Amino acid sequence: MPLTEMQSVQALERLAIIRPHFEDGVCQTEIARVHQISLRTVQRWVQAYREEGFTGLGTKARSDAGHCRGLPEELVLLVEGLAVQAVRRPLTSIHALVSQVADEQDWPRPSYAQVYRIVQQMPKDLVTLGREGAAAYREAFDLLYRREARCANAIWQADHCQLRCYFLNEQGKAQMPLLTAIEDDYSRSLAGYRLSWSAPSAVLTALTLRGAISVKEDPRWPIYGVPERFYTDHGSDFTSKHLEAVAADLKMALIFSQVGRPRGRGKMERLFLTVREEVLAKLPGYAPKVEGNMRRQREIEAEARKEACLTLDEFDEIFRTWVVETYATRIHTETHAAPHVRWLSSGVIPVLPRNEAQLDKLLVQPRRRRVVHQEGITLLGAWYMHELLAGHVKEAVIIRYDPMDLGTIRVYEGEKEERFLCQAFCVERGGQAVSVQEIVTERTKRRKAVGKALRERKRVVERYASPEQQAMRAMEKVPAAPGPEGRHEGGSVDEDESVTECVTECVTELSEQSKKQPKIRWYDDE
Question: What pLDDT was estimated at residue 8?
Fold first, then answer.
């Protein structure tokens, strides 16, 4: 059995004492006199060195080390069982109860010092499991598997974090926003993020994932593409049938943590800690969390609400600048490389969706039906216009949109199979303006197409169902006039003539209607 560090030091000291006996032939009595130790001790060291070598000079541990000598095993287990109860007992209470049981069972009574040593020598995991429960035990002692990505875009992690800093919302009131972030596990690069006032939800996760997959407008932010695996929590804000369907369509595997046991997201927690320390702590309205002092916490938050002066859009600019200029360009302490440099140097070829429609499915803030009016499409009190809507006036269409970007909406036609139609804009909400000339051109084009279709159908009607042909068909259904012998009494030639005149008038009226020209509607802007 190898010696411990302390035993090795002790063995070296003893070897230095008896070394002259082996090298110079000094007698053991002289060595004992010079070092003022007993002759029997020197003899024992010499014998141990000859039999076991260097390891024989170390002090051997007792075979019953760690055990209470003189106490029954049942008594020791009783002490340990009382010490790990959920309701923690003081040692004096444990000692009194154990002494009483020992008298009843004819065991030797333990001393207070023995009870103290038994409790102090108990394994920490056993004490934690007994006193604090299984959840605390898993958190402190469960062995964890550390997942490491082999290359960029192999694993992305997502998580939410409420930022402990107050900003002004749309109503001008101070509020703490929510940060949803997606990080590339290999490079520690931030693939995408989203700031919002809403609570964590699957909608927010899907919208953030859409932004992370898309190519960024800023050339300093190179991360994009569909990840091989997307690792998230198992909460309702990450699990949804819609997200699972989109992941299957993108050929992206979803990995969820165990239900009720969120583990393995320490990298995301470290990112959020960095954001708090390097970004939020420097801004007005920062309200750090105070543990165990609710009164002080309320005072800090009240003061932070008074100091809040930045809007969420202004903070978005600050945070984006920090991400691309500071966080992504400095050396990471664990990977020993800058996140963006490590992502680019991995040599991965990002995989993009086959078409834009696959990403549009991540716009889960719904699939809503809207009727196209002459003024366009209305949504949340605003009108959206595109010239291609001219061909779908008074028709129902499907729209999808980003709740955080209401400047544009994506319009689809078809109920069972959606087909992308156009991207409508709202100028009031920052969208692209549609010129009057574009609307007039598309409207005229549509009117000509409708007029052409109408004329084509009229020609078919003229060919097969003209007024003359309808009159002839009506005449064919009139029975032939009977002879004089077949007429009923009271019948006359005047009745036959009246029927003929009626049919003639109908034919004349239908002919005049067919000659009427359709009215052309002129618009003021043409």
Answer: 86
Amino acid identity for residue 120 in this structure = Q
DSSP conformational letter for 258: B
Please give the full DSSP string across 279-348, using - where no structure is assigned.
Answer: TGGGSTTB----TT-HHHHHHHHHHHHHH---BHHHHHHHHHHHIIIIITTSPPTTTSS-HHHHHHHT--
364 pLDDT above the threshold of 60 = no
Mean pLDDT of 429-453: 67
Residue 468 CA: distances (Å) to CA of 125, 261, 478, 507: 102, 83, 16, 7
- What tokens does 357 get? 């429609």
pLDDT at 524: 44
CA 294/CA 501 separation, integer angstroms: 100
Distance from chain centroid for Cα 108: 62
Average pLDDT estimate for 126-137: 85
Residue 486 has pLDDT above 60, yes or no: no
- Do 399 and 410 touch, CB atoms closer than 8 A? yes
* CA separation for the pair 223, 185 (Å, rounded): 12
CB 288 within 8 A of CB 297: no
In the numeric block, the tokens 């319009």 are attached to 411
Query: How many alpha carbons lie under 13 Å from residue 323 in its C-beta half-sphere?
Result: 23
Of 3.40.30, 2.40.160, 2.30.30, 1.10.10, the CATH number of 365-434 is 2.30.30
How far is residue 274 from each of residues 166, 267, 301, 479, measured CA to CA in Å?
Answer: 18, 11, 21, 98
What is the pLDDT confidence band of residue 345, given thresholds at 50, 70 and 90?
very high
Q: Where are the alpha helices (DSSP H) in 53-132?
A: 73-83, 91-104, 112-120, 124-132
To the question of domain 155-345 being in CATH 3.30.420.10, the answer is yes
CATH 1.10.10.60 fits 73-141, yes or no: yes
H/E run at residue 15? helix 5-23
